[in-house]
Amino acid sequence: MFHRNREPRLMKGCVGMTRWRVSGATGSVRLGERFQPILWSVMPASPSNTRDWSFVRQPFWLFSHVFAASVVGLFLFFAFGWQLPRHFERADQNELVAARSFGEPIDVDTALGQPIDDLEFTAVLTSGQWIEPSLIRVANRSQDGQAGEWQVGLFETTNGTQLLVNRGFIPRELESAAPPGDTNLTGWLRESRELERFGVADTGESIRAPRLDIEAFEQRFGQSYAPMWLQLEGPTDVDQFPDPVPLPELNSGPHFSYAVQWFIFASLGAIVYGLLLRKKAGEHAKELRRAASDLDRNIEPLEALGGANASSSSL
């Protein structure tokens, strides 16, 4: 005889499971137990559980987790490994520039007798004579939104020091600079600019240099210079060039705001991905309940078949 006995059972992956039993002369079969592996995999754990997270262990989603974590990690690196350190470096540079450039100027020969690592932006003064006011130009410079070059001259101090002097900015279309009239100079000592990883090498063949590299100038002109160059200080005259190059602005720059932006991008990425998984878990739970319902409907006809077999056996 065919019996249908519903016993609510709370299992992992299934609702209150319906147990079926077919009785007859040959024995009995519990359909609920026979289909238990299927029901276990397709039914949600409880009607009150609206999400199923078992899909997160599937290969596609495992790859998705790794990709999302990589993107979020990259954004965090941009925030805390790139922009934030640059913000602190800019703050340290501002303190250094303010401490050295606003102090009382010292004689350049006296300053150059100290370790050069501690001389960047140091205010100095000197006197002497110009050897070559227009020695060379440094290309690809800009100032006040205008493209141009730096005019570099050679100055000899009263102690005989050969000093490279950045006289200032000249627009690209201007062929010649005004001759210097002062032999008493004030300015700031600056470090030689070395070749960077993606920079252009100074081969000495061009009439313009890619940077103010003292060692490259020594090879180009075959003589020795002071280990640092002088960034000339002077009043800005819009009607005459070269125009003295100002010191770096003492502000924090955009790096901190960039770090905040990258952190926001990382946070939004993590939140959006979490919401996507949450939505997918809800959809996955609906699919499992729908599959469980279809399986239950497929089992229903067996009740009528079992009843008909029992009637024919009694006859």
Radius of gyration computed on alpha carbons: 41 Å
Helix content: 40-55%
**Which segments are poorly predicted (pLDDT under 50) over 5 or more consecutive residues?**
1-48
Which assembly state applies to the chains in this document?
single chain
Beta-strand residue percentage: 15-25%
Q: Span from first to last CA?
A: 13 Å
Helix and strand content put the structural class at alpha/beta
User: What is the average per-residue confidence, as pLDDT, rounded to a whole number?
Assistant: 80
Shape: elongated
Order of strands in the sheet with most strands? 5-6-7-10-8
Number of helices: 7
* SSE succession: EEEHHHEHEEEEEHEHH
The major β-sheet equals: 5 strands, mixed, barrel
Say how many strands there are.
10
Please describe what this structure looks like.
The protein is α/β, with parallel strands linked by helices and 315 residues long. Among the domains are: 2-57 and 283-314, no CATH class; 122-246, no CATH class. 40% of the residues lie in helices and 23% in strands. The protein contains 7 helices and 10 strands. It has helices spanning 31-34, 36-42, 59-101, 108-112, 214-221, 255-299, 301-314, and strands at 2-6, 18-24, 27-30, 106-107, 123-143, 146-157, 162-171, 184-190, 208-209, 229-232. Helix 3 runs antiparallel to helix 6. The model is unreliable at 1-48 (pLDDT under 50).
What would the keywords be for this entry?
315 residues, alpha/beta, five-stranded mixed barrel, three-stranded antiparallel β-sheet, 23% strand, disordered N terminus
Outline of the structure:
This protein is α/β, with parallel strands linked by helices and 315 residues long.
